Design the sequence.
């Protein structure tokens, strides 16, 4: 197997907003097969025209992907995607990894790690910063935390998304904590 083939993964991106669209672009450019889901009609289909794969349901996305990157707005939307209407959690394959890029309360993130672990799903707490242009260039900063197995499952996916990937611990919650501290330091509330 050539290095390139080995690196290509089926990656799902949930939420093609400014950041999610950039992430999906960066992953595709790095050679991954990107499956996209967006709640707005036509958004995933437009991405498919550029070479991605559009998924009509979160279940279809979960069935196709080993790594699922969630770029929704907040904890409420993440909850809805995983356990609410989307019911993604039930469809995720055991051993796959859910990469959560939203900035959420660290204790909520930590609890989510345990809930997904009960389903055999790995979890990476991975809030992002850098804005849409950096997302599209694959140069965002990611503040990540998670079990070693979650990092291993992500393989080259994180590097394709971000210029800097900080690994802040082997439990979820640390990424969110550092992101919140950074925002305070930057005076962004």
Sequence:
């Amino acid at each position: 197997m050539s290095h390139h083939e080995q690196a290509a993964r089926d990656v799902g991106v949930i939420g093609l907003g400014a950041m999610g669209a950039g992430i999906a672009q960066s992953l595709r450019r790095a050679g991954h097969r990107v499956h996209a889901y967006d709640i707005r009609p036509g958004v995933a289909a437009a991405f498919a025209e550029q070479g991605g794969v559009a998924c009509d349901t979160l279940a279809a996305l979960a069935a196709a992907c080993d790594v699922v990157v969630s770029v929704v707005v907040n904890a409420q939307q993440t909850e809805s995607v995983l356990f609410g209407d989307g019911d993604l959690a039930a469809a995720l394959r055991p051993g796959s990894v859910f990469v959560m890029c939203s900035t959420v309360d660290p204790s909520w993130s930590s609890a989510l790690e345990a809930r997904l672990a009960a389903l055999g799903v790995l979890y990476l707490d991975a809030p992002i910063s850098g804005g849409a242009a950096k997302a599209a260039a694959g140069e965002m900063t990611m503040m990540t935390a998670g079990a070693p197995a979650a990092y291993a499952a992500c393989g080259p996916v994180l590097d394709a998304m971000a210029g800097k990937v900080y690994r802040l611990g082997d439990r979820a919650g640390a990424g969110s904590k550092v992101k919140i501290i950074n925002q305070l330091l930057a005076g962004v509330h």
The first strand starts at residue 10 and ends at 14. The two ends are 48 Å apart (CA to CA). The chain has a mean pLDDT of 90. The CA atoms of residues 37 and 56 lie 7 Å apart.
